[in-house]
TrEMBL record:
Organism: Flavobacterium aurantiibacter
InterPro entries registered for this protein in UniProt: DUF6427 (IPR045625)
Spans traversing the lipid bilayer: 12-31, 37-60, 72-104, 124-152, 159-179, 208-226, 238-257, 263-279, 286-305
Domain of life the protein comes from: Bacteria
Pfam families: DUF6427
Entry protein name: Beta-carotene 15,15'-monooxygenase
Amino acid sequence: MITTLFSKSRPLNYLIVACLALGSSIMAFQADAKIEVSAVVQQISCSILWLLSLLLINFITKRNSVSKENTFPILFAAVFVLFIPEALRDLNILIAHFFILLALRRLISMQSLLAPKEKIFDAALWISVAALFQFWCVLYLFIVFVSIVLHVSRDYRNWILPYFGVITALIFAGMIHYFSDFNPISYFYTNAVVDLSFDYFQEVSQNAALSAFTAFACILFLAQLLSLSGKPLILHAAYKKVLFSFCIGGLIFVFSTSKANDLLLFTVFPLAVMTASFVEEMTGKWIKEIAVWLLVISAVTFFFWQL
């Protein structure tokens, strides 16, 4: 039933996903049990950002044909975030994630070869701005250079443009420092640290959610990797960027000093694309339905367990 319903782009589908996103966001907020004006304002901001992120995911997948004419990507994005309810109340992570989506929108659309210089600069700028909220987002600059290699490597000016994007973001950070207490030098000094330790969760529910999320992610990543050769040649570059995006999202979690499941939010977009692709390629109707229900039930179970 789920696969049949979401196999088309219907207004009802968007309404269901919006209700799922808002409902999970509200429940995650209530679990925090801080009913204060500032907390309510922050949660409203988080909910709006998450809805905007889902709209952006829908735009990226449809505009660049990385999924068929369906609403699977936004459904699976809303489902995967149920494994990590902490992300729905972490404003900094949601802001950084939104800017990364803006950058990926520009990078994935480079396959059209329209205005590549503007897209390179914009992507580097958005990634650098995201790094002001979560430092290790700076790793996404790697995808900028991958995109240059895949599409426009012959023009030497394209190799310089990312640095201008970074410099622009640094100027922006300097202006913020001038008008507020934010110190970019102190921020980079504190956060530009690699911490590979994993002795961090005390609650069994968070460890179990991480294990389940990782299991689903590894299966989907391998499936996407193995099926890449069967994709239309024109879309190979886009799917490679999706795979790189997933890997970098995982590295952000591994490298960060303050490890928490909410950092896995950066893997949600590529996972949503990979899951949509996986479901689209499955031939057996009931096998497809069982696979989707298994994911949904697992996500909902871990969501309520962690509240």
